[in-house]
Amino acid sequence: MKNSIANVQKRRSDILSIIQEKEEASVELLCQLCDVSPSTIRRDLDAMYQMGVLTRTHGGAKLHDQSLSVSEPQELVKLRHALAKAASLYVKSGDILSFNSSQTALYVLNYLFDMNLIIVTNNVEAIRLHHDTTSTLIMTGGEIRLPKEAMVGDIAINSITNITSTISILGCNGIDPIHGVTTENISEAKVNSFFFENTVGKRIVVADYRKIGARAPFKSVSCSMVDILITDIFAPANIVAQLRKQGIDVIQIDPNL
């Protein structure tokens, strides 16, 4: 079935790989290489354009000139919500859920209802976000790092070490097979590491295609600490393959489906 979700995801990943290699590709060429109709390719290109991955050209597409910057906020929010929704499926009723200052991780709360959870986070925004009244929200405390409003420092770390989570979800600035999960702030990196170290269940990383293969200055955890990576179909296929070889269950979602 050419229109199954798996086939659509693979085809769009192939389209991105072709355009990355050639810098620009016509609808005609993509039809030949992907063995589908022009209307199918145009739908794919439109969807990928909406995500800010590609720029449409007359008769084809090319790489987005600012594909590594947050230049499409509306589409980025849509993508983050799609990743968060996928991550929420791993949370079970009665879990002790921990997550860091990541916006994507925060959005997971939008999809958790009537589950009697204990939620532990250093993300100040969690206080403002509506969450299920059957669940308990525990803030780690600590020094608040602005403008991101992340709680860090010894107080935050001490709180985390006194709570054993059954599932933990981290966002990041980068993840690659060699350097692991990395972030731009050393204080947040320390907090992130303690979240995973004090989890006895699934350790999940949520990261969109821009973060896959990227490296930030400070390491949070090694790849060996990651059970599941939830990303999108635009993540570089070679990096995804390497991460899977390290034992990570990589889930790729299409936010347009």
Question: What does this protein look like?
Answer:
By secondary structure, this protein is an alpha/beta fold. The protein folds into 2 domains: 1-63, Winged helix-like DNA-binding domain superfamily/Winged helix DNA-binding domain (Arc Repressor Mutant, subunit A, Orthogonal Bundle), CATH 1.10.10; 74-253, 3-Layer(aba) Sandwich (Rossmann fold), CATH 3.40.50. 36% of the residues lie in helices and 25% in strands. The strands form 4 sheets. It has a 7-stranded parallel beta sheet. The longest helix is centred in the first third of the chain and has 18 residues, at 5-22. The protein starts with a helix and ends with a strand.
Q: Which features would summarize this protein structure in a list?
A:
alpha/beta; Rossmann fold; 2 domains; three-stranded antiparallel β-sheet; 9 helices; 36% helix
Question: What layout of secondary structure does this protein have?
Answer:
Blueprint: H1 5-22, E1 24-26, H2 27-34, H3 38-50, E2 54-57, E3 60-63, H4 73-88, E4 96-99, H5 103-107, E5 118-121, H6 125-128, E6 136-139, E7 143-145, E8 150-152, H7 154-161, E9 165-171, E10 174-176, E11 180-183, H8 186-197, E12 199-206, E13 218-221, E14 228-232, H9 237-245, E15 249-253
Parallel strand pairs: 4-5, 4-9, 5-6, 9-12, 12-14, 14-15
Antiparallel strand pairs: 1-3, 2-3, 7-8, 10-11, 11-13
Distance between the ends:
16 Å
Biggest sheet overview: 7 strands, parallel
Structural class: alpha/beta
Mean pLDDT: 90
**Total individual domains:** 2
Principal-axis shape equals: elongated
Helical fraction equals 25-40%
Count of alpha and pi helical runs? 9
Q: Pick out the low-confidence regions.
A: 66-72
